[in-house]
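On clarity, I found the account of how folds are encoded harder to follow than it need be. For illustration, here is how one protein appears when written out as sequence plus structure tokens:

:::
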Amino acid sequence: MHIPDGFLEVKTWVGTGAVSLGVLMYAIKKSKNSLNDRQVPALGVMAAFIFAAQMINFPVAPGASGHLLGAALATILLGPWNAGIIISSVLLIQRLFFQDGGLTALGANIFNMAVVGTFAALCVYRLITAINSSKAGKIAASFAAAWFSVVTASLAAGLELVMSGIGTLNSLIPVILGWHMLIGIGEGIITAVVVSIVSAYGANRFNEEGEGKNYYEETTAG
């Protein structure tokens, strides 16, 4: 899912970069208004976990690789704006220090994973939990949100490659989606297990007044 340099047309990476920058700036603003000192370590732990998970890459098509995403897990436990910041930070570090993904394609990679992946997970999770808000329902929603986030993020990457003349819809998209549908199953299982553990053990966070709050019960707030 990391697109390298030289694969996207200028208009594609400039356009996705502009959207990513706008969303990221808004996410930082939202996080500043809601984040307190006690919550910062949780963001660091989540970023480290996602960083490690994303470092395992699988080649799926010319110019693209597949890997675990982590957008759904971060969204469910920390909210979409914090999740967007975390995924963007991970992608930036991977590019600067590990040459994973292109510099010109960084905006597109952030758009696919931190924007599309995050908000796809948010929509699916909220939809399913609105129908069934029980513990089992939330765990099922976690699996579905993770699977859907991986697939939609990979679809966005595939469409960007096709628009840039790398393959065709019929030749490239089925390959990318096929691989990521399988990867999404693994991600869904991991996400559901972690969310289940967080639910079972309470994983309290505290607001500015010191009032105990639970990540799991306040998922996707803001």
User: Anything to note?
Assistant: The radius of gyration is 17 Å. Residues 10-214 form a domain with the Arp2/3 complex 21 kDa subunit ARPC3 fold (CATH 1.10.1760.20). Residues 5 and 104 are 6 Å apart (CA to CA).
